[in-house]
Amino acid sequence: DPLDMRFSFDQHLTAADIVNEYAESELADLIFHLGEDRAARRIARAIVHNRPVNTSLELAELIEKISPRRGKRVHPATRTFQAIRIAVNDELSALETALEQAVSLLGQGGRIAVISYHSLEDRIVKNFIRKQASDCICPPGTPICKCDHLATLKLVSRRPLTPTESEIEINRRARSAKLRVAERI
């Protein structure tokens, strides 16, 4: 498969653009921050030294050479592919926008349920819900509240719901899923 990863062909940036045009430091930062991969510098260096990388398979094999599986269940290229896909589609900004829009459409007592599949998404969802469930969002240590923020949501459960072992057996992709639910007040 060609390196694309766009959710919509209206977008111009492709995975091939990132892999073949970004500077080594930009690539390493992207893989580290969006893929949360500690081997980001090594992976970025290998990509830059082996350009052009034209297919998904080429990229996956290149990463596997420098970061072998060693008995891990998840392929070593997974986090790099995640980082590139998130960057290509600006997924984190889209998630933040979608959360704000969803809450604005909820009526009183309406519930928002969000499933996240990796820690970056889950952190955004968790922080958004916490912020919307707080009356004051002033920095800690501020003696008098000046933000005038009023809670718009209340938590339905403090912890996210995660799949059971039997659910994971039926659908392995559910293993990292977390469901968070909040209610409009």
The CATH architecture of the largest domain can be given as 3-Layer(aba) Sandwich
Helix content: 40-55%
User: How many angstroms does the end-to-end distance come to?
Assistant: 47 Å
Order of helices and strands: HHHHHHEHEHE
Number of strands: 3
The low-confidence runs, each spanning 5 or more residues with pLDDT under 50, are none
Determine Rg (CA atoms, Å): 20 Å
Q: What is the CATH domain class of the largest domain?
A: Alpha Beta
Count of helices?
8
Question: Keywords for this structure?
Answer:
185 residues; mainly alpha; DNA polymerase, domain 1; Rossmann fold; 8 helices; 47% helix
Outline:
By secondary structure, this protein is mostly helical. The chain has helices at 15-21, 24-35, 40-49, 56-66, 78-89, 91-105, 119-132, 165-170, and strands at residues 111-116, 153-155, 178-184.
Task: Explain the overall architecture.
The protein is mainly α and 185 residues long. The protein has two domains: 75 residues, DNA polymerase, domain 1, CATH 1.10.150; 94 residues, Rossmann fold. The chain has eight helices and three strands; from the N terminus they run ααααααβαβαβ. It has a three-stranded antiparallel β-sheet with strand order 1-3-2, with helices on one face. α2 crosses α5. It is globular.
